[in-house]
Amino acid sequence: MPTSILSPALNIHPTPLTQSTFSPFGTVIESPLAASTSTFPSPVPKTPNVVPANQDTALKYLDVTHMRDLYTSAPSKIPSKAVMNMFSCFPRAVSLSTVNQTRRLLFDVKILERHPYTTQTFIPLSPPSSPSAPQAQARYLVIVAPTLAASSHPMGLPDLNKTQAFWAQKEQAVTYGAGTWHAPMVVIGDERIDFVVVQFANGVADEDCEEVVLEEEWGSEGEGLSVDVGDARDCERAKL
């Protein structure tokens, strides 16, 4: 059973996902090349982690993320294996709220999870083209929280007051560091995003994944942890 904890009344405004802002929680993986670059560059960029490959028809970027397997320190001592799964993530429901006389769309955070003995990398695949929404923009929210420095609970609870949210684009992959509290993948908009997910696992449920359920205080319905995903009027205009 997941642990239940009280959620603060906190509304978070997401910022763009970048390596510098996300570094306390993991790694952002994205191409440094401009979208318009379609020929092999000359000269080759002189950086330590870039080498030419495939008979000078490709650039190989070395060690773009750091995979970690910490299962040797898990209580069961059951060995892990590398696993690769695919998640088809569909748009999440959002709620409507009025903030400073403006109607805002909010995503309510109800659960956080972490993988204490492994990193977890989400790699978005190119979204399928949709005749009904040819201009749809695929993006997702990355919601993370640090672990409390001192917690009376043995699993080390998330510090909800320091929760952060980031807007990620479909061209960006993300690796959560081992033990990083995060929300299950949150796709916002009209289109699904398919992710290839790479991690280690040993099949012991409590060692592969820990969860906490966020509960609002009694009588404070609609005042839990939420992420502001935009002006409701912008969404209405986009559908005109």
What are its keywords?
disordered C terminus, 240 residues, five-stranded mixed β-sheet, 40% strand, globular, 3 helices, single chain, 6% helix
Task: Please give a quick description of this structure.
This protein has 240 residues and is mostly beta strands. It has helices at 19-22, 205-208, 232-238; strands at 3-6, 10-12, 15-16, 26-29, 50-53, 58-61, 81-89, 95-99, 102-108, 111-114, 120-124, 139-145, 164-169, 173-176, 181-182, 186-188, 193-201, 210-215, 225-231.
End-to-end Cα distance, whole Å, is 44 Å
Rg estimate, integer Å = 20 Å
Task: Give the overall pLDDT as a whole number.
Answer: 88
Overall geometric form: globular
Q: Tell me how many strands there are.
A: 19
Order of helices and strands: EEEHEEEEEEEEEEEEEEHEEH
User: Hey, roughly how much beta strand do the residues contain?
Assistant: 35-45%
Low-confidence stretches: 236-240
Query: Roughly what percent helix?
Result: under 10%
Main sheet overview: 5 strands, mixed
Count of helical segments?
3
* Structural class designation: mainly beta
